What does this fold into?
Amino acid sequence: MSYPFQPVLPAPGSFNPLRIEPTLLWRSSNELSRNCQVPIDLTFLTLLGGVGIVAQGRYDVKMPYGASKPPSLNVLGVAGSGEGKSILIEKVTHPIHEEQRKQRREWRKRLDAYLGELEEWRTEVKVLTQAIYRKQTKGGIAEHERRLLQELHQRKPEPPREFRLIYQDTSPEALFLGMEKAIPTAALATDEAEIFFKGAMNRARGHISTLWSGGSALITRATKEDIVLDDARLMLLLMVQPGILQKYMETQGQQARGSGMLARFIVCAPPSFRGQRFYSLHTPQEQEAWKEAESRLATLTQENLILVQSPDTPREVLEFTQQGAACWIQVANEIEQQMGPGGYFEECPDHGSKLAENVARVAALIHIFEGYEGGIIPETVLMGMDICLYFSGHFRQVFMPPPQEEQDAYRLSEWFNELRQFNWRVMRYNDARQRAPRPLRDKKRLKNALDVLIARQQVWVFNHNRTRYIDLMPWQGPPDLSTL
It folds into this structure.
C-alpha cells in the first residue's frame, strides 16, 4: 500500500534533540541531569510526568478526530538501586508537595470548623427528633417539626475537600476514595514501585486504565457505599528496579499486557551511570533553567486549587491547529501502517495502538508547560512524536526482551571478555559451570548460551584427553594442547 505523504516517523531508536533543544522542558532537564548525575533520558521523562500531574486536572486535549482526552501520562522508569531515582522524583515533585503541605494546614483549620458545625447540626437533629416523638406519643401530628427536620437534613454540613495531587504508599480503595472526597485528579508517584507491582494496586489495573482513557469508574464495595469517579483524572509516575519488574513480568506480565495497562506506559530504561559520577568542588551547578521550571510547576499546581471549592470546574480544552491536526493524523497513520505485517510494531500492537494518542498527550503537555498560545502546531506535534518514538525503543527493550539464550549469551560473553583481559585462552567446561555468573551455572542455560556464542564463532568447545574445554579465542587458530 503506497503512502501519500513524505514519511515523518524517525528511525527506530534514533533521537534528534535539535527540535526540542530550545524548550524550557529540555533545558531544565539537562540542568537537573547534570546536577543530580542522573541519565538525561530518565530526567526528561520524569519531568514530563510531573507536568502531567499538575496539568491533567485543568486541561483536556481535543483529538483531531473529535474526542477529548486527558493529557495524563503513565510513566515507568526502570533503573537499579543507586541510580538516582529517589532524588529525581523528589526534585520534580517538590513544588507539588510544598503546595500540598501549605494547603493541608488550611484544610485542618476548615476541618476543625466543620466538626464543630456538624456537632451543632446533630444536636438540632436530636432536638427535632425528640419533639416529633413527644407529639406522636401524645397522639398529636408533628407536621411542622417533620418539615423542619427535612430542611435541616438538606443543610447538613459538607466536609472540606483536601488538596491532594500525589499519592504514594496507598491502597486502591484509599486512592479512589480520596479522588471522590478530595479533588478528582491524582497521581500515584513513587520511586519504590514495588508497592504497585506486588501490592493490591496492581489488581486495580482495569480502573486505572479506564481513568487514563478519560472514562468513568464505579468501585463497588461489599459493606460500604460505592465509589463513583465520573470525569476524574489519574496517572502513574513509577520508578522500579529491573529485578522487581522482571519477576512481575514472569508471574503477571501476560495478564498486564492483555489488559492493555502496560501498553499505556511511556517507558525509560537508561544505561547505568555508575562508575561515571564524579564530584568536583570547582564544578558550578547551573540552576537558572531548573528554577524557571520549578516556578512553572508551582504555577500549574496552583491552578488546581479551584477544584477544592468547585471540583466540577470545566477544564480548558486544547485544540490542534488545522496544520497540527494534519501532522498528527499523518503520524497516527504511519504508526498504524507499521502495525501491519513486517512493520516495526507488528509484534507489539497493544503498544502501537496507544502510541499516537501518547504523541498527542505529550504534545499537549509541552504546549502547556512552555506557555504556548493558540492551538497545538505541527512543530509541537513532531516534538511529541520524537519523544514517544524514542521511548518506544525502551518499551521494546523492557517488555519485549530477546530470548533467554540470547540474554545469557550476552552475559556469558561479558564474563569471557573479563577473562580475556587476563590472557585466558582456554578453560575447562566444568570450571565454567562452577565459576560463571550464577544464573549460568545451570547446565541447560550454559549449554544454550554457549551454542549461541559458537554459532557466532566467538568461542569453540572441544574435547582433549576425555576432558571438555572452551577455547575463548578461536579466531587465533587452534590452542596449544600441550599446555593443557
